[in-house]
Amino acid sequence: MFELKKDNVIDYLAPRLPQFDFSKDVTVTRIGEGDDEAEGQGFINFMYKVKGKDFSLIVKQGLSKPRLEAMNFSLPPERNMMEYESFRVRYSIIPKYVPKPYFQDMENHIFVMEDVSRLRIVRFIWNEDKILPKFAEQMGEFIAASSFYSSEFYLSREDFRELRNGFTNTKMRKILEDWIFLRKHDLGVSEDCKEFVHLFDPEYDEELKEACYELRRHYMSHEEALIHSDLHTSNVFADENEMKVIDMEYTFAGPISFDLGYLLFNVIGQYCASAFRPYEDLEQRKKFRLSMLHTLTGVVDSFRKHFKEYWKKDAKSYYKDAPESFVDHFLDQMIPELIGYAGIVNMYRLTSMHDYPDFDSIKEKEARVNAKKLCLLISRKMVLSRNEFHSMQELVDEMLRIEEIYRDNMQKK
Hints:
By secondary structure, the protein is of the alpha+beta class. The chain has 15 helices and ten strands.
């Protein structure tokens, strides 16, 4: 298999993409070299940014070895082709939120897409306490469109099953099924979290263990639509007006609520981290934290609004006679599901040895540990009591209650 390097990327691309001029003033950068923020663009794949006078491209190759040597496991290189197809499907549905895909090389597991680095990774924008006023509306619309138009509510039975079968993605799904839900990995436990391992390790708690298996079963068995399945804030680029979603190699037909929960675990993380990050302007802390709570409710409100719009406009004839209460019930039942998913993903990310920049940006250890513990307490409640929540506002109210108790206990020590 041909392996891309910085010094052969241009020669590789030139004959394959004749619409671009690679003959002069073209630079090649390997993503992640010497740029802390670029490191947020994935630990697994080898990616290159190729920039000319009138174009900027991302070239991505999937190899069996991860990009970061510390991740000592093998991967299916064919995941790269499935990711390209995922980009194509979503670009055909809602192109304003997806980088344009240009080319794929199935033999060498390479594809080329539009570079969207004119925008910034959302995680790092939020780490600077900056507010994205359109993010909740945009993200809700993206999840609603990409899920509705890849579901059996819109597609014929035959087309849906063909799409589902084309994205089984068993090997990539196994990483999430085993690591997130059952903690079956050798990544270790974060030094910050070792003193309260009983809060998050299912081996210490039968009730938590049961919840982990229940959520895993739901994740594996509900084939509702194509889901991104790795929709965290390092996989979203944005500015105050625009948003693009990247890194779709985990795509498969799964529960729509997982994408909502996976995205919102980062929002909850930012809310907890900002409680203990140092601020010169305390009013800015207040504004930012309030924006995170509004994002929690706003993403789900936007998703629900757009999903119902698509349903009313484009649901196939088979569903036209269904009462409105049917789609309302379908959307209502996602609330406890997505809350459970958000909680369990946060518990995994907070406590593993993986970098978690939302919290790693807090340099003072005691403050960082307090932020993580607060987030773990909230996440644990979300997992164990997920079926008690019927709206996102109820979750917000519970988060505020847990934080108040936690701060009271801190003052008593």
